[in-house]
């Protein structure tokens, strides 16, 4: 899978995500968010090292059901999923080390 570049699209439902039978990374945020923008280089580099992991950006905000179901409070929030189940979470990553720990939890 490749790096998902935009938060601006329809989000999957929680039922769809729970049914995924693969290693996945949900990235919650917004295109206009400066913290999300600042984190993109380390997120993109880390995702590139894991081409077998599905990366899905999810535009989050008030009234967005998927983010609420995961209790997302700050952006970006990255949720690592194995077969639809959360195995790790990184909030506002500042280093690739944090993300590598999340990817390691997928193994």
Please tell me the CATH architecture by its name: 3-Layer(aba) Sandwich
Mean of residue pLDDT?
96
CATH class: Alpha Beta
CATH topology annotation: Glutaredoxin
Instruction: Summarize the main sheet.
Output: 4 strands, mixed
- Helical content stands at 25-40%
Number of domains: 1
Approximate shape: globular
Distance between the termini: 17 Å
- Unreliable runs, pLDDT <50, ≥5 residues? none
Number of alpha- plus pi-helical segments: 4
The CATH homologous superfamily is named: Glutaredoxin
Q: How is the quaternary structure best described?
A: single chain
Derived from helix and strand composition plus strand pairing, the structural class reads: alpha+beta
Number of strands: 4
Please list the strands of the largest sheet in the order they lie side by side: 2-1-3-4
Measured on Cα atoms, how large is the radius of gyration?
12 Å
Please provide the ordered H/E string of secondary-structure elements: HEHEHEEH
Percent of sequence in beta strands: 15-25%
